[in-house]
Amino acid sequence: MVSRTDRVGATSRTGPAASVSPGCPACGSHFTHSQAGIRSAAERTRRAGFDLIEYPLMDPFGFDAAVARAAVADNGLAVSASLGLSDATDISSEDAGAVAAGEALLRRAVEVTHEMGGVQVCGVLYSAMRKYVAPASEKGLVHSREVIGRVAEYGASLGVRLALEVVNRYETNILNTGRQALAYLAATGRDDVAVHLDTYHMNIEESDMTAPVLDCADRLGYVHIGESHRGYLGTGSVDFDAFFKALSRAGYTGPVVFESFSSAVVSPTLSNTLGIWRNLWQDGDDLGAHANAYIRGALRAVETIGLH
């Protein structure tokens, strides 16, 4: 029997749930943290056929969790949250003030996720999301692991788990491969923090799309699906065939969340951080519906391998 996930979602940075607003590093030009924006994100995610929405919480102190909770309930969605830290909240910094600010931000993100009815916070939670010019220092790594351990313990008290996203070398200097993530988690001493793999980043850093999934199988708790150019799935160089087969072999049953970006909707701040220089799509609803069908088709296809 091949196990599969029944939870396919979209991050609200993408078209189906709209994307990034000019005034907030990760809030969207269509999606904003206004009540209307939060509701619109959920409605468009449902219309695209997804059953989970991932809200970005770059400013969890300003996010209306009550409105989000109502919006996901009204649309029959599950919910998760994501964020990336900044220089001012970098828990891998040697600056005690930045580390303290980052821990406060992460704790609030956990609270907001709980208030929305979610059980997972994912993303670049362990460092700033930016290109570093030097390797992480040992002191910085200690800070990062200690904060993640404390926040994970706090999350456990609220029923919320952390999933640490493995991203490419241009967005962090700590977790660029699945094996690095496993070593980091082992050093935290906590077994309730998960690995978050993203096909876009894997396509840059990993040797293939199979081994990292199998290596991380016991700790894999969250998955992002993104194409090599951040556009329509199946039009780039990511080996989705191998990836979905690996998910099946690993017995993965967690969220599979679509993520895409376009210069048409991404703010200048986030565009500069992520290098979104080209407009690969304009119709987010069409993009989302296509991604939903693509992901569900892939999951169904690998499920039938059990019949071979």
Map the helices and strands.
Blueprint: E1 8-11, H1 35-47, E2 52-56, H2 65-74, E3 78-85, H3 96-116, E4 120-128, H4 138-158, E5 161-165, H5 178-188, E6 194-198, H6 199-205, H7 211-215, E7 220-225, H8 240-250, E8 256-258, H9 268-274, H10 284-303
Parallel strand pairs: 1-2, 1-8, 2-3, 3-4, 4-5, 5-6, 6-7, 7-8
Helix pairs in contact: 1-2, 2-3, 3-4, 4-5, 8-10
Q: What structural category characterises the helix and strand content?
A: alpha/beta
The structural domain count equals 1
- Rounded mean pLDDT is 88
Order of helices and strands: EHEHEHEHEHEHHEHEHH
**CATH superfamily, called what?**
Divalent-metal-dependent TIM barrel enzymes
CATH C-level name: Alpha Beta
Largest sheet: 8 strands, parallel, barrel
Number of strands: 8
CATH topology: TIM Barrel
Determine the N-to-C terminus distance.
11 Å
Beta-strand fraction estimate: 5-15%
Q: What Rg is obtained from the alpha carbons, in whole angstroms?
A: 18 Å
Q: What is the overall silhouette?
A: globular
By CATH, the architecture is named: Alpha-Beta Barrel
Low-pLDDT ranges: 1-5, 13-31
Strands in their spatial order, largest beta sheet = 1-2-3-4-5-6-7-8
Structure overview:
With 308 residues, this protein is α/β, with parallel strands linked by helices. The chain has one domain: TIM Barrel (Alpha-Beta Barrel). An 8-stranded parallel beta barrel has the order 1-2-3-4-5-6-7-8, surrounded by 7 helices. It is globular.
